[in-house]
Write a structure and sequence with these properties.
The complex is a heterodimer. By secondary structure, chain A is α+β, with helices and mostly antiparallel strands. Helices cover 35% and strands 23% of the residues of chain A. Chain A folds into two domains: 120 residues, Penicillin-binding protein 2a (Domain 2) (Alpha-Beta Complex); 332 residues, Beta-lactamase, CATH 3.40.710. In chain A, helix 11 runs parallel beside helix 13, helix 11 packs antiparallel against helix 17 and helix 12 crosses helix 17. The longest helix of chain A has 26 residues. Chain B is mainly alpha-helical. Chain B has a three-stranded antiparallel beta sheet. In chain B, strand 1 and strand 2 form a beta hairpin. The longest helix of chain B is centred in the last third of the chain and has 66 residues. Classes of the chains: A alpha+beta, B mainly alpha.
Chain lengths: 544, 410
């Protein structure tokens, strides 16, 4: 055999070896290599859904998600001598000392600053510092600031709802993150989507029933009363009588959700919903209503309130002064404790409990707000006469301002208790009848007299509009369980116009100082101010 | 001046080169983008170099092989000079830990690529002039290998074991074709084997490479990274591959994807069927080259034949080692796939080598033609001679008869 042939055979042998090995890799064992490859090349990534916006009833954005960038660094790869470092620190407002501390940490990932504006991000990128990286992030921005902060609440840095509606509707707003399998190159860049595992669902936009202008006015009024009376806190809520929507809901002090430092203050509480108080005299109308309903009293009947006090069991009920013989509507107008106590004594426990229960006391108002209080209303089987009397003028129970406003709304709408909604509704709110229309009318009539010149709340009057409402001046409970002598809560709840009620409003001022503490002189003016604004909103002019 | 080509070899190599450009583009696009270059940066550069190569090839085909035969020693010294120049700071350049490049006027030249060709030219000449000594005396056989060994040491110093092996084995192949005795090779194999063993054991770098070759999956993110990525690429190809351009491993996963590991990218995109075709076309290429050499040998154009064999073996070895490394049947060493891989010096020298083959093929044909003419001439001459003889016989005969007649008449 010639050497030429030998070499040819030798080379052909190699060709066969190459083919055999290729066969082994590609045909016999390909599964192993394919899996090894996919382990390295394919990644499952989540596509973040965009959190829905929260808007006011006219579509004005109150909470929106904006694009931000976060700056992080890898201290192990950081170029500590980079000539642009000082410019970086200046743009991020980080001190050199703090930065040095961060740069010496034994980690591969540390945030320098989270959620800065994209503009600054572009600048930082242009500095080209090794080891400093940018990361896209979403940030929640609250355009109305402290105006609606207690309602809306806020999200944390990871865009999870922490408070308020952001928390309650978190999953709706959040939507659903999508999942997809992608092919990445070694630099981590996505080359293509291989498989869509979960389609992302965008967050749903919430349209609130809140009117941002009314909300603004509500705050202005509260701020004013806080300043004038040096009160501890103040709240108010305005509901639309027709459909139970919350038009404005505010309490002071408040906080700015855009400033993380304020997010732990006591301003966080939406007092209208979460705080309960003894409602006091505003509750008298319900006692009156049940007495009329069960025909224990007649409208034109009178009750003798002299000598200005009455003792039931171990409890003595007193009026401010002896008022003598009072008509039914005078009992409300003058807010006689003795009068209403005497009426209450005529009513069966069962009936009295029932009406309070029907008007929503002792039950959560189901407003869709996290942490709402249901207040306390004991079952009538636990009552005695003293308790019943106490309840007749709003003590020995508790309720939130929202519950009070809602119950007054039921009177305003002719005896129908409407569902509360913080979201704008298009459905007709049929509600639940809790009182015959006739009696609701009588109560409304009585309430209009409260705002007369000789009533308890002449300051609740609005020019050209008949206002129905009731004051409350509640002694605050002291820490030892009794009542204080010098600390009051001023209340006013009412609606207008009396003949065709549009809005119902409840105002509470906690511990006003400077001598004035009656509901009629502290809370009623606030009511008048804000109710006027509500009634004279452009869209309501022709309804008057 | 006319264009000198060997048609068969031309078609085969043109197909490989054109397809190589496509492969370089496919394999390098992501890497180019990652370095903020345009996606066809490498493919464009390669195309440009191929065009320069064609010009160079044209020149080489115009020069008689005899010229190289006579100037071979001069060129060998030139090669040695270049190999040494690599280590002169300012001229030489180190890339990826290997000092293989010299930079002159902005152009980088990988010296070992050129050295290969020059060494084979030198050795072909030696074999031509000392044919009998090489075949029959061990001393005559080993002498040139000492010189080649020196060249190899210089290439080794530049950390290029792959090229060293190619040079050594090719030279042995050439000597084999010069009918050196079998046991000479045995001795040389042992010497080389011990040499490579020592080289491997003494260098941590080579040792790690060897270990990672034995079991690449042990350290897939360290020493075994490149090989495992290559195996993943090839294995993922299955029967028909992912299709041109659809490979994944070239997305920055496989280092040197458009160069020392272009076969892996090819295999991922064209599958087993593709490999069969590729091995087929390279077999055709090398077979044609060997055929050309054999024809030269049968015409007794010894230098042409030995040089032809040298180039054939060199191409064959580089194809085998490149594919073997990619497939994980040989330890990892950086060698280009001839006419396909990206690399200016490599493609330039390979195209020039092809030009040598064209010239050799051409000279064989020319020789055969002149030989035939000469034979034809000889034939004519013989006929004329024989006629003369007959004439002379006749003349002699006539003379004789004349004299006989003369005498009789006397």
């Amino acid at each position: 055999m010639s050497r030429y042939t030998l070499v040819t055979i030798f080379l052909l042998g190699f060709a066969l070896i190459i083919l055999a090995r290729s066969w082994q890799l590609q045909i016999t064992d390909y599964k192993f290599f394919q899996k090894q490859g996919e382990d390295r090349q394919l990644r499952i990534i989540t596509t973040k859904s965009v959190r829905g916006a929260i808007k006011d009833r006219s579509g004005y954005p109150l909470a929106v998600t904006t694009n931000m960038v976060s700056v992080w660094m890898n201290p192990k790869k950081l170029d500590k001598k980079h000539h642009n470092l000082t410019r970086l620190l200046k743009s991020l407002k980080i001190s050199k000392k703090k930065f040095a501390k961060m740069a010496n940490k034994k980690t591969r990932f540390i945030y320098l600053k989270r959620q800065i504006s994209p503009k600054v991000g572009v600048f930082i990128k242009s500095l080209k510092i090794t080891g400093v990286h940018l990361q896209k992030e979403k940030k929640r921005y609250y355009s109305a600031g402290s105006l609606v902060s207690q309602i809306i609440g806020f999200t944390n840095v990871d865009n999870k709802g922490q408070e308020g509606l952001e928390l309650f509707y978190d999953s709706l707003l959040q939507g659903k993150d999508g999942k997809r399998k992608v092919l990445k190159n070694r630099a981590g860049e996505i080359i293509e989507t291989v498989q869509q595992i979960d389609q992302e669902v965008e967050g749903i936009d919430l349209t609130l029933s809140i009117d941002k202008d009314m909300q603004f006015f509500a705050y202005q009024s509260l701020r004013k009363v806080m300043k004038n009376t040096q009160a501890d806190s103040a709240s108010l809520v305005i509901l639309n009588v027709k459909n139970g929507e919350v038009v404005a809901m505010a309490s002071m002090p408040t906080y700015n959700p855009n400033n993380p430092k304020q997010r732990s203050s006591h301003g966080l509480r939406n007092r209208v919903i979460t705080d309960v108080i003894e409602p006091g005299s505003v509750m008298k109308i319900f006692t009156m209503a049940v007495a009329l309903l069960t025909k224990k009293v007649q409208v034109n009947q009178t009750v003798d309130t002299s000598p200005g006090y009455i003792t039931i069991g171990d409890r003595t009920v007193t009026d401010v002064h002896s008022m003598g013989l009072l008509t039914m509507s005078d009992v409300i107008k003058k807010s006689s404790n003795v009068g209403i106590s005497k009426i209450a004594l005529k009513v069966q426990d069962k009936h009295m409990w029932r009406i309070l229960y029907d008007f929503g006391f002792g039950l959560p108002p189901a407003s869709g707000f996290p942490g709402e209080s249901s207040g306390v209303l004991r079952h009538y089987k636990q009552w005695d006469n003293a308790m019943k009397v106490s309840l007749s003028y709003g003590y020995s129970m508790s309720a939130s301002l929202l519950q009070i406003a809602r119950a007054y709304g039921a009177i305003a709408s002719g005896g129908v208790l409407k569902k509360i909604s913080l979201l704008r509704t298009k459905k007709i709110n049929t509600g639940k009848r809790v009182l015959p229309k006739k009696i609701a009318r009588i109560i409304t009539k009585m309430l209009t007299r409260v705002t007369e010149q000789d009533g308890t709340a002449p300051q609740a009057v609005i020019d050209g509009v008949v206002v129905a409402g009731k004051t409350g001046t509640v002694k605050k409970t002291s820490s030892d369980g009794g009542y204080t002598d010098d600390k009051y809560i001023s209340l006013f709840a009412g609606f207008a116009p009396a003949d065709n009620p549009q809005y119902v409003c409840a105002v509470m001022v906690d511990n006003p100082k400077g001598g004035r503490f009656y509901g009629g002189s502290v809370a009623a003016p606030v009511f008048a101010e804000i109710m006027k604004k509500a009634l004279f909103m452009p869209q309501n002019i022709n309804k008057l | 001046m006319k264009i000198i080509i060997d048609k068969k070899l031309f078609y085969i190599s043109a197909a490989i080169i054109l397809f190589g450009l496509v492969m370089v583009f496919s394999a390098s696009a992501s890497f180019a983008k990652n370095s903020n270059l345009s996606a066809h940066y490498f493919a464009q550069k390669q195309t440009f170099i191929v065009l320069i190569g064609l010009l160079l090839a044209y020149i080489v085909t115009q020069i008689p092989v005899k010229f190289w035969q006579e100037t071979r020693v001069l060129f060998l010294f030139f090669a040695l000079l270049l190999l040494v120049a690599v280590f002169i700071p300012g001229i030489g350049k180190t890339i990826n830990g290997s000092t293989r490049w010299i930079y002159l006027g902005g152009m980088g030249l990988q010296v070992s690529e050129l050295a290969k060709l020059l060494v084979f030219i030198y050795f072909a000449g030696y074999l031509t002039y000392h044919e009998k000594k090489v075949a029959n005396s061990f001393l005559g056989f080993i002498k040139p290998f000492i010189l080649i060994g020196f060249v190899c040491v210089l290439i080794l110093l530049a950390k290029d074991l792959g090229t060293t092996i190619v040079v050594m084995v090719t030279a042995m192949g050439m000597a084999f074709m010069a009918r050196a005795k079998f046991h000479y090779f045995l001795t040389l194999f042992i010497v080389n084997g011990v040499g490579i063993y020592l080289l491997t054991v003494t260098s941590a770098y080579r040792k790690a490479r060897l270990m990672s070759f034995v079991d690449p999956w042990q350290d897939t993110y360290g020493a075994g990274y490149q090989l495992t990525q290559s195996l993943i690429a090839i294995g993922s190809g299955k029967w028909f591959g992912a299709g041109l351009g659809n490979g994944v491993q070239k997305l920055l996963y496989l280092p040197e994807a458009y160069n020392d590991f272009i076969f892996a990218v090819f295999s991922e995109e064209f599958g087993f069927i593709g490999i069969v075709l590729l091995v087929g076309i390279f077999s055709m290429l090398i077979y044609r080259m060997m055929q050309i050499s054999l024809e030269a040998q049968s015409c007794n154009l010894k230098f042409n034949a030995y040089l032809g064999y040298g180039i054939s073996f060199w191409f064959a070895l580089q194809v085998i080692i490149h594919m073997g490394v990619n497939l994980g049947i040989l330890p990892t060493t950086g060698l280009t796939l001839p006419l396909v891989s990206y690399g200016g010096s490599s493609i330039l020298v390979m195209v020039t080598a092809l030009a040598f083959m064209f010239r050799i093929s051409y000279e064989t044909k020319k020789y055969s033609v002149t030989d035939a003419k000469a034979k034809e001439k000889n034939k004519d001459k013989k006929i004329i001679d024989s006629n003369h003889k007959i004439d002379r016989i006749f003349m002699d005969y006539n003379k004789n008869t004349a004299s006989v007649l003369k005498n009789e008449y006397k």
